[in-house]
């Protein structure tokens, strides 16, 4: 690696803090947006956009979410190509992180401030515009951020360790985002904010400010060129996209990832409904259940890291998909089995913690391996494009997930009329089952063997 240094543990942690920031913002949107603008009756929130349903299952929020995600998907490869081709004294990636952190947080807050405090088409316009800015700013941060993973991790084990750290902070971002209702109700009255809407807005503004500071931590602490070779690419964008899709292992990875994120988005979007509608519990339970899930998943992280090095990542990822499909299927029966409803909520989260611990760490490490292997074979380093195309497909999955969930709410989203919410679990189960089966085609053993041979040859040339 020439004069490039190994990333020390302290800077691995500060790199991961950036993910804590953007994870918090993304999960605020995932957990709160549909609930805020298409609330169940029990939420006692005002209606800001029309709840009308047309063509049987379609609604305005669904179309807004779809348009935002599609715009986001288009910008992913564009930003990746800018980042891959960019050069500055601060490196290829860090300037993008510095420019986009605070705009992302501001736009997240604006999503929850309707232009008119009543049902109005102006609120639809505002949502549309603010989400376009939010997703573009988010892409300018996330795509270069992930491109740093294979650049800062110089071996498969280093990339796995980095992936473990960012999995920890991503999970902590979920926990922080899940505290929005509790923060609003707990701190809002201390600042004179008493309305349910005002408390949500107050909490989101506070948490988003913290998230923006976290996103700046890697920029303030890591000198990119000290730890990364980062040679700018001269491959045009469309050729770079085609090049990624010519990588067979990447196809196996990205199709499974798309199905998984579609299912995961349905589940995440539906979580407040599962708690309040199917189980009849309070919104505050989410602030208890998600931290519990994260703490339990953390307990499995050392085991995940050790097992991945011993038995490989592929079998662990597919096995996690299979286990998760069973959990998702059980959502259909929540509130209907002869078990205390609170106990059902805890059982759902406890059983979910195991597969999420594997899927939080290993997929990023696998993609970093694929990107590094491709760079070794072709001599062209376009890590940004690999992660961007992955993110592009991921966002297609998230778009479809929100689309499907919003459509299902039209079949019932309230107590006593909850068929759509229950069916969302079945759809999730089918999607992650497919992901598990398809990912078994990934040729992990051959890829890692070829990388080891390339690294051994490179070491021999440097020493010879």
Key structural traits:
globular; mainly alpha; 1% strand; 464 residues; Growth Hormone, Chain: A; 16 helices
Tell me what the structure shows:
This protein is an all-alpha fold. The protein has one domain: Growth Hormone, Chain: A (Up-down Bundle), CATH 1.20.1250. It has 16 helices and two strands. Strands 1-2 form a two-stranded antiparallel ribbon. β1 (53-54) and β2 form a beta hairpin. α5 (156-178) runs antiparallel to α13.
| Side-by-side strand order of the widest sheet | 1-2
Which structural class do the helices and strands define?
A: mainly alpha
Cα shape: globular
CATH architecture: Up-down Bundle
Helix and strand sequence: HEEHHHHHHHHHHHHHHH
Structure annotation, total helices: 16
The biggest sheet, with number of strands, parallel, antiparallel or mixed sense and barrel status, is: 2 strands, antiparallel
Low-confidence stretches: none
Mean pLDDT across all amino acids: 84
Radius of gyration from the alpha-carbon trace, in angstroms: 22 Å
């Amino acid at each position: 690696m020439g004069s490039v240094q190994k990333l020390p543990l302290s800077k691995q942690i500060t790199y991961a803090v950036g993910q804590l920031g953007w994870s918090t913002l993304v999960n605020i949107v995932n957990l709160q947006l549909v609930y805020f603008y298409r609330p169940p009756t029990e939420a006692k929130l005002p209606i800001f956009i029309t709840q009308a349903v047309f063509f049987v299952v379609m609604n305005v929020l669904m179309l807004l979410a779809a348009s935002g995600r599609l715009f986001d998907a288009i910008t992913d490869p564009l930003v990746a190509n800018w980042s891959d081709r960019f050069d500055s004294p601060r490196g290829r990636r860090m300037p993008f992180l510095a420019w986009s952190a605070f705009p992302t947080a501001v736009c997240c807050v604006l999503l929850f401030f309707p232009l008119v405090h009543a049902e109005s088409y102006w609120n639809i316009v505002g949502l549309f515009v603010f989400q376009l800015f939010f997703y573009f700013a988010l892409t300018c941060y996330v795509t270069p951020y992930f491109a740093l993973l294979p650049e800062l991790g110089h071996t498969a084990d280093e990339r796995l360790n980095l992936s473990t750290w960012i999995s920890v902070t991503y999970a902590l971002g979920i926990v922080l985002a899940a505290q929005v209702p509790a923060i609003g109700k707990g701190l809002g009255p201390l600042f004179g904010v008493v309305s349910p809407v005002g408390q949500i807005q107050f909490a989101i503004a506070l948490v988003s400010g913290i998230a923006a500071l976290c996103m700046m931590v890697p920029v303030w602490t890591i000198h990119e060129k000290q730890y990364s070779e980062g040679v700018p690419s001269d491959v045009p964008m469309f050729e770079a996209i085609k090049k990624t899709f010519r990588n067979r292992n990447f196809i196996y990875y990205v199709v499974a990832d798309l199905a998984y994120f579609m299912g995961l988005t349905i589940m995440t979007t539906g979580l407040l409904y599962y708690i309040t509608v199917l189980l009849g519990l309070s919104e505050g339970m989410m602030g208890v259940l998600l931290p519990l899930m994260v703490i339990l998943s953390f307990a499995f992280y050392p085991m995940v890291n050790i097992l991945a090095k011993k038995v490989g990542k592929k079998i662990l990822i597919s096995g996690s998909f299979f286990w998760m499909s069973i959990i998702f299927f059980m959502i259909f029966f929540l509130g209907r089995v002869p078990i205390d409803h609170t106990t059902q909520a805890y059982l759902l989260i406890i059983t979910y913690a195991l597969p999420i611990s594997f899927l939080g760490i290993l997929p990023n490490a696998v993609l970093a391996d694929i990107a590094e292997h491709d760079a070794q074979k072709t001599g062209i380093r376009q890590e940004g494009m690999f992660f961007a195309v992955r993110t592009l497909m991921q966002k297609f999955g998230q778009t479809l997930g929100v689309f499907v969930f919003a459509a299902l709410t039209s079949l019932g989203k309230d107590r006593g009329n909850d068929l759509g919410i229950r069916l969302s679990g079945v759809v999730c189960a089918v999607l992650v089952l497919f992901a598990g089966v398809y990912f078994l085609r990934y040729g992990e053993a051959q890829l890692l063997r070829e990388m080891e041979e390339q690294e051994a040859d490179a070491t021999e040339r440097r020493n010879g």
